[in-house]
Fold each of these.
Amino acid sequence: MPQTLGGIDVGGLERSGGRRSDSIRFGPRAHGVERAEVYLSMCAFEPHRHDTYAIGLTTAGVQIFRYRGSRRICLPGQLHVLHPDETHDGAAGTDDGFGYRILYIAPELVRDALAGRALPFVADPIQEPTPAARPIASLLADIDEPISELSSAEIAAAVADGLLSLSGQTNFGRATVDIRAVELVRDYLVAHASEQTPASILEKIAGIDRFTIARQFRWAFGTSPDRYRTLRRLALARAAIESGRSLARAAAEAGFADQSHMTRQFKRTYGLTPGRWTDLTAASLPKTSRGQGRTWRTAPHSSGALTGT
C-alpha cells in the first residue's frame, strides 16, 4: 500500500520542552490493511487524500479538520470516517494536542466483502460510539497485532457491515447459518491451530467465501475465526509452559509470531502475563510435583479453559 500519512510537515515532528513529542507509529500492515497511532500538537497535516478508507478513533485531545467544505471537530471516543480520495487536513484544536488511532483499508477489500456492491459513503464523517460504530472502533484496540489473511477478511467484513450501517443502507442481515460449513472451519482450526492457515484453505473446506465465513462463524460461535484460533494457540502454549518449556519456545511451537505476541494475547485472555501465571500456578503445586509438569487437556470446542491432570 502507498504511504497514507502524506501531507505532513515532518520537520514539525521534532520539538523541545516537557510535553509529549509528536509521533506517528505504524503497526504491522498486510493484505490491504494498515494501522497507525498518531499524536500531534506542534505540527499539522496539510490538505491531502488517501486512496483508501481512513477510519480513526480520537484517543486524546481535540482534533479538527476540513472535509468536503466544512470544518469538523472530533473528540475522544468519536470516530472519523473518511471516504477514499476525499481531500482533508488535520490539526490540534487546543494547545494540548490530540491523539488518535486509525485504520486504512483498501476499497477493493470492502467491495469484495460486500459481494461487489457499490462502496458505502458515510455522509457525516464524525460518528458517536453507537452499536453500529463499535465493531469498527474495536478493530483499533491493538494496532500491534499481526494481520493474517484470515484476520484481514474479518476486518473487511466488520468494516463493510459497519460502513453500510453508518451510511444508512440496508445491511446483509443475519442469514441462516451454514452450520456444517462453520463446524468444518472450526474443526480445521482446532487441528491446525499452530499453522498460518490461508483464508483460501478455509474457503475450500467450507465451500463459502472468506467474508461469509467471518460473519457466520461469529454468529455461530460468538467470536471470529482468527480469535478462535488464537485461543487454541494459547491452550497449546499453556500446556507447553506447564511442561517446562521456555516462554520463547512455547510461543514458537504454538504458532505465535514471537514471545511478545504470545504475551499480549495471554494477558488479554487470562489477565496475567505468562511469567506471572507460571509463578502463581507453580506456587499452588505440591513441592514434589513442582518442575515435573502437568498434563493439560482441552476440549476441542471450548473457549480455552483447561483442566489439569
Note: The longest strand covers residues 53-61.
Amino acid sequence: MFHVKPSRPVFHVKHRHRGRFRQRIETCRRRCMGEDGPVTSAPLRPEGPTPTPRLIATDLDGTLLRDDKSVSLRTVAALAAAEEAGIEVFFVTGRPARWMDVVSDHVHGHGLAICANGAAVVDLHAGRSFVEVRALPRATALTVVQTLRAVAPGTSFAVEMTTGINYEPLYPPFFQDPGANVATAEKLLDGEADETAAPVLKLLAHHPELAPDEFLELARTAAGGHASITRSSPTALLEISGLGVSKASTLELCCAERGISPSEVVAFGDMPNDVEMLRWAGTSYAMGNAHPDVIAAASGQTVANNEDGVAVVIERILADLATQRG
C-alpha cells in the first residue's frame, strides 16, 4: 500500500512571517480582481472559466522557478493564497530531495513534495525525510546501462540514491558533489543482495554528441521495456526510473490517498518528464517556454516561467472562485 501522511489543508506560516505573507496574499487578490491592471499581455488557453481544483501540481525548474532559480514574490503570494483558499499545492519535480531548499519555505499544510520524477515523496517539514520511495532495482539499472552502452557508445552514467549521487569518471561535472563516489556504473550499482544498500532513485545517462530528443527516442526504443526513461535537461541527459514510475503515477497515488480525482487537479510543466502528469490531470498548462511535446500534451498554455506563468493561472483560478462565491 502506498503511504503518505494525511492531508492537512491548513495554512501554516511561522509567526514572524505571517504579516509578510498576508500582505503578499492581499497583493495576489488585488491582481486576481484586476486592481493592479492586466495580469499578462498574453492570452491563456483554453478560454472560459478555469475549473476550481482541489490540488495544484507544479514542476519547478522552467515552470515555477524563474531561470535564476528564484521564486518570485508574485508566485509566493499566489501559492499562499491558493493554500488559504483550501487548494493543496504539490511540488512535483525531477530534483532530488537535497535540492529542495529553494521551495521549502513555500510548502504549507501537508509539507510534501514529489521528487526524482516520482521516485520519492519527501516531507519538507521534517528535514526532507523520505515518506515513500519507489526504487529502481539495481539489476534493472545494470541492464539499462549495458543496453545503452551497446546502442549509444560514449554514454556515461550517474546513480542517484537516497543518500546522494555517485557518478562515472567521464560523467560531466554538472553538479560536483564532494561526497560522491566515482567509479563505473557497474561498480556503483553492485550490491543488489545487500539489504543495507541505499535505494536507487534514478539512473542518469549522458551522451556527449547525440541531440537530446534523439537520445531519448533511442533509449526508449532500446530499453523502454525495462524502465521509465525521460528527460528534463536541455542537454542529452536522460533520467531513468523504475518501470511505471513517473511524476504522474506518484501524483495519482498521492491524490488517491486524499480522495482527489484527476478532474480536480491542475498541473503545470515545461519538459518531457512532465508530459504524463499533464495528460493525467483534468486541467493542465504548458509554460510559454515549454518543449513542443509538452504543449501538445497540455490542455492549456500560460506564459513563460520568467513571466510567472503559474501565478498567472492561480490568480485566474482564485478570481473565478471569488466570483462564484459572490
Note: The CA atoms of residues 255 and 266 lie 12 Å apart.
